[in-house]
Amino acid sequence: MTWLILILAGLLEVGWAVGLKYTAGFTKPIPTVLTLTAMAGSVGLLGLALKNLPLGTAYAIWTGIGTVGTVIFGIIVLNEPASAVRVGCIAMIIAGIVGLKMSTI
User: Fold this and answer.
1) Greatest CA span in the chain, whole angstroms?
2) Which is nearest to 14 in space by CA: 68, 53, 52?
3) For residues 14 and 29, is the Cβ–Cβ distance under 8 A?
4) What is the pTM of this model?
5) Long-range pairs of 41-46 with CB within 8 A, sequence gap ≥ 24
6) For the chain, what percent of residues have pLDDT higher than 90?
7) By the 8 A CB rule, do 64 and 96 touch?
8) Residue 26 reports pLDDT greater than 70
9) Rounded distance, CA 64 to CA 60, Å?
């Protein structure tokens, strides 16, 4: 259950990172409220996961999920470049996430 909480926290991190783009500097009320809600939920769930997981592992996985998800969103939705180097770097982040998960079984 702790890992599911951490994954959800990471997905909410993607939500608030993406949401920042749509708040227009926190001037648009609905995107701002959704972004702040996702931020609070993400950090709150990370806090719950930290009850049972090592700090470094949980934090690295949380930020890794957020990073990978945000880059994928940018590539698919915002037409950001998907160069071989960029995709390769994302693959290394995913490998790091998997390695950290496997090292804490």
Assistant:
1) 44
2) 68
3) no
4) 0.89
5) 41/9, 41/12, 42/9, 42/10, 42/12, 42/13, 42/15, 42/16, 42/66, 43/9, 44/9, 45/5, 45/6, 45/8, 45/9, 45/12, 46/6, 46/9
6) 95
7) yes
8) yes
9) 6
Radius of gyration for the alpha carbons in the chain, expressed in angstroms and rounded: 15
User: At residue 35, what is the residue type?
Assistant: T
Which tokens belong to 70? 């945000």
Q: CA-CA distance, 41 to 24, in Å (whole number)?
A: 21
Return phi, psi of residue 83, to 5°.
-65, 160
- Contact 60/9 with Cβ under 8 angstroms? no
105 band by pLDDT with thresholds 50, 70 and 90: low
- In sequence order, what are the residues at sequence separation of 6 or more whose Cβ sits closer than 8 angstroms to the Cβ of residue 20? 35
